[in-house]
Amino acid sequence: TGRRHQIRVHTAHIGHPTACDGKYSTLATFRSDLEFCSRSFVHRCRLVFRDSSGVEHEAFAPLPLDLQSCLGALQPR
User: Fold this and answer.
1) Membrane-spanning residues where (predicted)?
2) Could you tell me the CA-to-CA distances from 53 to 4, 48, 57, 58 in Å, in that order?
């Protein structure tokens, strides 16, 4: 919500809304995005944090298959 929302606002502000963002893109762009991607294209691939004893933990999440498919469907302009 918070950081994801900030990313969506900032990318839209510079004229590059995230794919399938029905709130911060135009209706035409949103509909066009739906042709190749069925959901918001925001993904955190890495998370690092320190626990209460100061030990650093790191987790990775590969790009889900549906989002990989979205990338494969993109065409250069």
Assistant:
1) none
2) 28, 15, 11, 15
